């Protein structure tokens, strides 16, 4: 195909998870279209350019599917009959200044998003990551963040984090107890080959070396060099 277009895609998911759901829908379309479009052909998506849709990140989704942005132009709704995703969707008008066509190709380009779209794209910053929801204005985002649904999710996330920290702390305590329980005390490592000094350091008579601590001595004692020195000392005796 020379041109493959998807006009106003939407997964039908609203509210939480809508952003990820719609990104997955467009990514799937791009992956399928890339295998069907002819060399030099175009893969297009018509989409509103308001904050809620700008947050989808069309250039990034296209790039992840191996497509390169070649042009963005305003959408002309004069010959388009728009229907919503719902089962009994109704015809809706799409304002000319609120929709664009994202055009991608297989060839790499140095195309830059036009200035008239840059300001609209910046609107996608009004995002609640906790609820995975996008809002048109900062005021709408603030209202959402003070709402009961958002506050319940924040509270649940904090409780979950506290539980995870408790589990982590408990695990770390058990690991420390296990290590300390297996660590030999100074009185236990005295032998004809080892001398523990008053400053806590350990002298290995077999290798004629000093270790700064019991931990350092444990590492030294596990080395093949130490084993060979001990064996040679015992054989000479």
Care to give the gist of this entry?
The protein has helices at 18-36, 51-54, 58-64, 115-121, 138-145, 148-182, 214-221, 224-236; strands at 3-7, 42-48, 68-74, 82-83, 91-92, 99-105, 127-128, 133-134, 194-196, 202-204, 209-211. With 237 residues, it is an alpha+beta fold.
N→C terminal distance: 88 Å
Largest sheet: 4 strands, mixed
Radius of gyration: 33 Å
Could you give the count of β-strands?
Answer: 11
Low-confidence runs: 186-190
Order of strands, main sheet, comes to 1-2-6-3
Provide the helix percentage: 40-55%
The secondary-structure element order is EHEHHEEEEHEEHHEEEHH
| SS content category | alpha+beta
Average predicted local confidence, pLDDT:
78
Question: Total number of helical segments?
Answer: 8
How much of the sequence lies in strands comes to 15-25%
From the spread of the alpha carbons, the general shape counts as: elongated
Structure description:
The chain has 237 residues and is an alpha+beta fold. The protein has eight helices and eleven strands. The protein has a four-stranded mixed β-sheet with strand order 1-2-6-3. Helix 1 (18-36) crosses helix 3 (58-64).
